[in-house]
Amino acid sequence: MLFTPFTIKGLTLKNRIVMSPMCMYSCMDESGLVQDWHKIHYPARAVGQVGLLIVEASAVTPQGRISVHDLGIWSDAHVEGHRELVRLVHGQGSKIGIQIAHAGRKSEVPGAIVAPSAIPFDEKSRTPEALSSEGVAETIEAFVQAARRAKEAGYDVIEIHGAHGYLINEFLSPLSNRREDGYGGDRDKRYRFLREVIDGVKTVWDGPLFVRVSTNEYHPEGNTPDDYAYYARLMKDQGVDLIDCSSGGTVPAAIKPFPGYQVPLAEKIRREAGIATGAVGLITEAQQAEEILQNERADLVFLGRELLRDPYWPRTAAKALRVEIEGPTQYGRGW
Ligand code: FNR
């Protein structure tokens, strides 16, 4: 199944292999503009026959960057570089999406940082300012404008970053959201920020929409996988196409990852919410990826670090599964 096509919201991927979004921290001039590095790094994985690449967390506001070296999509000046990246990847026969993100209280950018409530991530972190109601509205609008730019750049998929303790996750989690204004309180109120981001994005974007969430917050008072199955049903009702099931990062927690450790989360969300899922986290072997798909535990497999180590992992996997796949025509029988 790994090398069977997958169609989602009218977009057909040539296989089920997705490159997970990974920050390259390569905008050394702090402009957030696409750099030569990105134009080499991403198309190399397209040459390697990855079906879908998701470009790293790209900040919807300068303050929403994790670091000053992050990629950005906060201004119209960013569109041209993204358009070039899309053109290069399409030229090698792969599809390409972008993850739009706001780091919230986990931003390491100098100056004030923002979050739902004035609660720092840990004792070493800066205390964020609680977003005012205007700040909330402006931030939602920043996600919408980022989606509009992603569309102008020609991306095939938009992924909203709702995981890893960044701003959207901070709204969802009772550990970081103590608001009393309709954006905090019970589960539905904590979901309101993400609800409005999704609704806003959908006013400018009608292509496949993915949301990455941390389906386990690893804290007794945090959201549980059951809570995320509930949120996934809400997202499905809003027209989200796929939940990319990551975990952690909401609060400091010692996680001991092992191969496929987040796959049961993707499986649970898929079964209980009836929505397509992506599995991610220490998926490195072809048979392991095949098992996830054959047992209907997820619809797509996302690989992170293994695709950093081996940009041609699809070829490695095809050999292991004894499947013939096409390589770049230029390589002919050398592939
Ligand atoms: C990441 N990860 C990540 N996740 C995300 O949602 N947005 C991002 O921009 C990043 N950035 C990032 C950079 C680097 C260098 C690494 C290694 C990881 C997490 C990544 O997408 C993936 O979920 C994890 O790495 C787990 O998958 P693997 O690496 O075990 O396949």
TrEMBL record:
SUPFAM superfamilies: FMN-linked oxidoreductases (SSF51395). The keyword Oxidoreductase applies. Its cofactor is FMN. Keywords: Flavoprotein, FMN, NADP, Oxidoreductase. GO terms for molecular function: FMN binding; NADP binding; NADPH dehydrogenase activity. The keyword Flavoprotein applies. This is NamA. It comes from Paenibacillus mucilaginosus 3016.
